[in-house]
């Protein structure tokens, strides 16, 4: 059962670690100073949240946060491909849309986890939800504001949504051993969280005049297996960068 | 075994430890210290960070450990992330120290960020004619405002809600 718990917590932690890294890539490149600060601050939060999730595993005798973050085989990661995607040409519409789709998912996930029968996870979820409120506020305000502004802003958000939706959909791919996770009362079924996520994003997208059409199966198929260790083509480069300092001196003490 | 020190004395010592970003407010007044248990030389201290991603956490942990070791004790500091930190945990002395440090402070018991940002007064001139420049600031617990009356920029101490 401990492996099942580990894989659940890693799916939460790895998403946070990688989105934190991707958000941090905006430092110095934000379209305005305030957004530079916003992405830097959110990135710092998400990275800290990843560490807090890893710590839950350390507390039950598994590996340390540093070992999970920096000394794992790529196939041992449980992140969704959405958070592995690079920032490509640094289109801010794309970055905001990923931030919005991901943070909506986090809201839904954390609200559910507050009721988790695994008490340390429920306690952590209560804490993180209070911190995440600012991320969610930031994401939805910008989507609404830009969606209702110029034609260019609207069309860039719409194309970002079309591009990212299949990836965001797969945040809710069924977890390995999900039956056991649900039976233990650790987390509700992914299909239920997915339903809540759609309900969360739909009114905001409508307000921003953005249309959501569910991804086709042929768009989802190549993205399958992320929670079982299938990494996206973008992971390798990201991981090499994340671990560059550690790799330079694996024995160093921090 | 008779303890050489009481937990109250340890709390007193911890008044000397603070986040380097807000040096005038001790971890005690910030409400960041949970239980303190003493058993002989062994001292267990619960540290409850404001934000989970705050980079000062490991520094504070080290500072507490160093302080207690210098007193000849064996410290075990547990960083508690499975419990939220609340602004209500800040003592009245802490509240006053934050104010003196130049922070605007939120009204207690708000849970909506927009509501909190809508009710801020300038800590320098007291004007309510202020606007939010950025909900995110130099640390997780700060938002940046500008006062239209005195023209100064200032920071709101921004708690997890």
Q: Report the end-to-end length of chain B measured between terminal Cα atoms.
A: 43 Å
Q: Estimate the global geometry of chain B from the Cα principal axes.
A: elongated
> With helices defined by DSSP (H or I, 4 residues minimum), what is the helix count of chain B?
4
- Please identify which CATH superfamily of chain A we are dealing with: Ferritin, core subunit, four-helix bundle
Number of domains of chain A: 1
Q: Helical content of chain B, roughly?
A: 10-25%
CATH architecture field of chain A: Up-down Bundle
Oligomer: heterodimer
CATH C-level class of chain A is Mainly Alpha
> What is the CATH fold-level name of the largest domain in chain B?
GMP Synthetase, Chain A, domain 3
Name the poorly predicted regions of chain B.
Answer: none
What structural class do the secondary elements of chain B suggest?
alpha/beta
CATH C-level of the largest domain in chain B: Alpha Beta
CATH superfamily assignment of the largest domain in chain B?
Fe-S cluster assembly (FSCA)
- Reading the helices and strands of chain B in chain order gives HEEHEHEHEEE
């Amino acid at each position: 059962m401990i492996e099942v718990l580990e894989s659940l917590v890693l799916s939460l932690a790895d998403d946070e670690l990688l989105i934190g890294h991707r958000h941090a890539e905006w430092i110095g490149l934000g379209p305005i100073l305030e957004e530079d600060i916003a992405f830097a601050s959110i990135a710092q939060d998400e990275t800290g949240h990843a560490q807090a999730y890893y710590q839950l595993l350390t507390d039950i005798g598994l590996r340390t946060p540093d070992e999970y973050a920096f000394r794992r085989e790529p196939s041992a990661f449980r992140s969704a491909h959405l958070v592995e995607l690079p920032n490509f040409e640094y289109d801010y519409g794309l970055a905001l849309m990923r931030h919005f789709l991901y943070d909506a998912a986090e809201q839904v996930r954390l609200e559910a986890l507050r009721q988790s029968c695994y008490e340390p996870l429920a306690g952590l979820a209560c804490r993180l939800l209070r911190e995440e409120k600012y991320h969610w506020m930031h994401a939805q305000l910008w989507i609404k504001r830009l969606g209702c502004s110029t034609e260019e802003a609207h069309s860039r958000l719409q194309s970002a949504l079309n591009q990212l939706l299949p990836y965001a959909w797969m945040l809710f791919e069924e977890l390995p051993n999900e039956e056991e996770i649900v039976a233990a009362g650790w987390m509700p079924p992914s299909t239920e969280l997915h339903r809540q996520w759609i309900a969360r994003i739909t009114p905001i997208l409508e307000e921003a005049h953005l249309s959501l059409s569910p991804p086709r199966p042929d768009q989802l198929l190549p993205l399958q297996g992320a929670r079982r260790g299938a990494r996206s083509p973008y992971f390798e480069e990201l991981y090499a960068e994340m671990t560059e300092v550690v790799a330079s001196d694996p024995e160093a003490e921090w | 075994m008779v303890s050489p020190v009481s937990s109250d004395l340890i709390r007193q010592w911890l008044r000397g430890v603070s986040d380097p970003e807000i040096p005038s407010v001790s971890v005690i007044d910030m409400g960041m210290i949970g239980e303190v248990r003493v058993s002989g030389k062994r001292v267990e201290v619960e540290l409850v960070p404001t934000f989970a991603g705050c980079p000062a956490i490991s520094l504070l942990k080290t500072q507490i450990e160093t302080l207690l070791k210098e007193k000849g004790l064996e410290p075990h500091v547990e960083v508690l992330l499975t419990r939220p930190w609340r602004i209500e945990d800040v003592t009245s002395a802490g509240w006053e120290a934050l104010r003196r440090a130049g922070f605007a402070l939120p009204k207690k018991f708000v849970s909506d960020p927009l509501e909190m940002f809508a009710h801020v007064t300038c800590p320098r001139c007291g004007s309510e004619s202020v606007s939010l420049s950025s909900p995110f600031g130099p640390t997780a617990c700060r938002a940046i405002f500008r006062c239209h009356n005195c023209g100064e920029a200032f920071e709101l101490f921004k708690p997890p809600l």
